[in-house]
């Protein structure tokens, strides 16, 4: 099992969520986060003054999937979440040791 | 030319009540936009209030209420408030001036609906100055300052034509010129703070008592009638919109408060001409009409973002026509269709039609001029970050 953490544009969240659902990825945890990437945020040049906005609002999606689904998840998030401009986000994949349900005594180990 | 202290006290209070409507619009709109534009939306209403205050004192009041020039505009006799003093007929001239000022200010604040989340604040100041001078002031003169509508006998008790039709159809024209928000129709732009919108709506409802009752310009029975029908129409509009939206799903609170404002907008022109039962009909019809106007606006994919057109514009037209249908001679000395007189309805239709046309066309031209010279919009990047940061250098997030 893998945990996929995707940090995406807030305005693309609905599209990404629906696309994941179409591909069978339903369960997820979502957080509103702020962050910056390689460009150190955005610098606005407006009429002589410069305002730098170094932390930009993003949405973080966390979901645990089977190993063989990871490629599908990455492809789906890219297709639905991409604008092609700086700030589209990142996808991080991490190994999961145990996935235990709280409701019942069902535990999946990797 | 004596001052009545009772009337003066009453209109002083009404003026302060109407002033509160402008930040009320700011809160109402502020809750409806995305969080990154909340400060901008709230600030725009203060910008509107301040710009109009100075404009009104310098020359706006004179253009609207100076002695009539050809039925179209007021003379420049009151420029800089010269000749506007502490004396007056019933209430001091200064008080009448400032009571009218707060109306002009809230009208410009209503228009900010059209440019929500994308307007450059410097351009809005210039646009607002032009709009109040070339759209609001002439209309106020036509109806209340002895212009051609007043001569014909077209009625508008508290601003259905001057405030609501002009702001609503002006907003539609402005929205068409400035263009849609980035991502409009592609992803959801849900209200970020509904309690704030409800609070803004509450302040509007409260302030509206000053708006309509105060338009009697005296603390008398007519003011009481306006007060009562205003409340009735607001409640009827709220319930009607709620019922209509309930059929399609759940009765949303935003829908309910929008319905109340639809009812308030519609009763505004009629508040001095109809009684309580007519107010129920006016409110219910306005709630339904404005709700379907909003759905129509969405189907047309117009980004008149916060529905000044659907609520104020359509509600204002309906209320202006409603005088011609429901007016009772016992209330305001005018008979409508129900009392067997067709003439007033015809006059009201002329008034509403002319205002729709004038407000839409002139606003469209003014917006184009500002857009071509200064640019109405912020850059796409500024819009993406939000106007709070890009226009004000402030943020609701730490």
TrEMBL record, chain A:
Coiled-coil spans in chain: none
SMART domains: P-II
Listed SUPFAM superfamilies: GlnB-like (SSF54913)
Name of the protein described by the UniProt record: P-II family nitrogen regulator
Automatic annotation (TrEMBL), chain B:
Pfam families on file: Ammonium_transp (PF00909)
Annotated keywords: Ammonia transport, Membrane, Transmembrane, Transmembrane helix, Transport
InterPro entries, alphabetized: Ammonium/urea_transptr, Ammonium_transpt, Ammonium_transpt_CS, NH4_transpt_AmtB-like_dom
UniProt superkingdom: Archaea
Subcellular location: Cell membrane; Membrane
Transmembrane segments: 6-29, 41-59, 94-116, 123-145, 157-178, 198-218, 224-247, 254-271, 277-296, 308-333, 345-367
UniProt signal peptide: none
Membrane topology classification: Multi-pass membrane protein
Keyword Oxidoreductase: no
Residue span, Ammonium transporter AmtB-like domain: 9-396
Family statement drawn from the similarity comment of this UniProt entry: Belongs to the ammonia transporter channel (TC 1.A.11.2) family.
NCBIfam families: amt
UniProt-listed PANTHER family: AMMONIUM TRANSPORTER MEP2 (PTHR43029:SF10)
Protein name (Swiss-Prot/TrEMBL): Ammonium transporter
UniProt organism field: Methanoculleus frigidifontis
